[in-house]
């Protein structure tokens, strides 16, 4: 299943783009975040359908890290 999310801000100054892969350990639909097995928390885009993300699935995500927030910009559910 491919889930694509675009969340690029107009101002990208000071942000770092990166990617990672891992197993989803926690989903917080109220905060729109997921926590992977690496212990890091990643913010989902507002338009994301959180119901397709469940604990135990493996994801590959691209994200921007800015102001202490790892904002997901793209996600592939394996």
What does this structure look like?
The structure is a single chain. The protein is an all-beta fold and 78 residues long. It has a domain at 1-7 and 35-78. The chain has no helices and 6 strands. The chain has strands at 2-3, 16-28, 33-36, 41-43, 58-66, 69-77. A 6-stranded antiparallel beta sheet has the order 1-6-5-2-3-4, with no helix packed on it. Mean pLDDT is 87; it is low at 6-12.
Largest sheet: 6 strands, antiparallel
Number of helices: 0
Question: What is the averaged pLDDT score?
Answer: 87
Radius of gyration over alpha carbons? 12 Å
List the uncertain runs. 6-12
Strand composition percent? over 45%
Overall shape: globular
Order of helices and strands: EEEEEE
Strand order of the largest sheet: 1-6-5-2-3-4
Share of residues in helices: under 10%
The N- to C-terminal Cα distance equals 6 Å
- For this structure, the quaternary state is single chain
Secondary-structure-based class equals mainly beta
Number of strands: 6
């Amino acid at each position: 299943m491919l889930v694509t999310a675009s969340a690029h801000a107009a101002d990208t100054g000071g942000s770092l783009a990166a990617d990672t892969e891992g197993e989803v350990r926690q989903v917080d639909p109220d905060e729109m975040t997921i926590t992977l097995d690496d212990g890091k928390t990643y913010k989902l885009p507002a338009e994301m359908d959180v119901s397709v993300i469940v604990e135990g699935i493996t994801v590959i995500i691209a994200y921007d890290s800015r102001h202490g927030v790892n904002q997901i910009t793209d996600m592939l559910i394996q």
